[in-house]
Amino acid sequence: MEQTKTPTPHIGAQYGEIAETVIMAGDPLRAKFMAENFLENPVQFNNVRGMLGFTGTYQGKRVSVMGHGMGMPSIGIYTYELFNFYGVKTIIRVGSAGSIQTNLHVGDLVIAMGACTNSNYAAQYELPGTFAPIADFGLVRGAAETCERLGYHYKVGNVLSSDVFYAENAHNDKWINMGVLAVEMEVAALYMNAARCGGKALAICTISDHIITGEVTTAEERQTTFTHMMDVAFSLV
Q1: Which GO terms describe its molecular function (predicted)?
Q2: Which one, of 57, 72, 73, 75, lies nearest residue 20 by Cα?
Q3: Which of 24, 26, 50, 211 qualifies as a FRET site for 33, CA 20 to 30 Å off?
C-alpha cells in the first residue's frame, strides 16, 4: 500500500476517504443510484473522468460505491488503485450480463464463481500456464445465502469476460457447451487483481438480455431497476 500515491491519476480521493469495502458498477450513474438509495450520509470522493464515487454508511457500516467503466482495462485500473493505494480489502461488482443458457432469464442473478476470458490480461503475470480467476468463497457463500433468504432466482457458476461487445464470431455455442452461464466484460480482471493484491472480490450480475432468445432491457432499466443484485451486495458489507 502506497499512501503517498493518493490521489491517483484516476481517483481524486485522499487516503482514508474510501472504505475498506467498495461496491462497484460499470455505469457511474448506477453508483450514484446506490449512494442515493442505500447509503446514509454519502459523501462524493471522486469525479475524475466522471467516474463517480461516494462513501457513506449502510446499517452502521462504512462502505463506498464507485463506477469502474466498461471493459477489463478500465476496471483493471480502478481496482488496482483501490487495492494498492487506498487500503481497500473487498470489491464487489454489480453489473449486467447477457445469458447464454436457456434456463437463465432476464432479471435473474448470476453469482460469478469463476471467470473465463478471451482477454490477454493475465499475460502480464508471465505465468507458466493458464490462470483461473475465481471469487472469494466466503463472498460467494454469503451471496447465495442472501438470494435464498430473499427468494431471488440465481445461479452460481462461470461467466465469460469478453474483450469484444460487437463480436464478428462470438462462438457462443462453444462456451455454452462448457456450461458458461453468461457473458460480460470485467470480472476476470477484477478477480486477477484481487488475487495479485491479496484482496477479496465477487461479481453479482443481473441478466439484462438473452443472447440466444433475444430478450432485452432498456438502458434506463439497467441503470435504476436492477436492485436485487444491490440488495445482495450490501448484505455482504
Answers
A1: purine-nucleoside phosphorylase activity; uridine phosphorylase activity
A2: 57
A3: 211
- Distance of alpha carbon 236 from alpha carbon 21, whole angstroms: 9
List, by residue number, the catalytic residues: 209
d(CA 184, CA 200): 20
Residue 22 to residues 2, 88, 142, 183, 213, Cα–Cα distance (Å)? 18, 7, 16, 23, 34
DSSP 8-state symbol, 14: P
Going from N- to C-terminal start, the domains of the chain cover 3-235
Confidence of residue 155 (pLDDT cuts 50, 70, 90): very high
In this predicted structure, the answer to whether residue 225 has a pLDDT above a threshold of 70 is: no
Per-residue model confidence as pLDDT tens digits over 180-214: 999 999 999 999 999 999 999 999 999 999 888 88
Give the span between the Cα atoms of 8 and 38, in whole angstroms: 27
Q: CA-CA distances (angstroms) from residue 32 to 29, 44, 89?
A: 5, 9, 21
Q: Can you read off the three cell numbers belonging to residue 93?
A: 461488482
Task: Return the SS3 of 104.
Answer: coil
**Whole-structure pTM value:** 0.94
List the CATH code of the domain at 3-235.
Answer: 3.40.50.1580
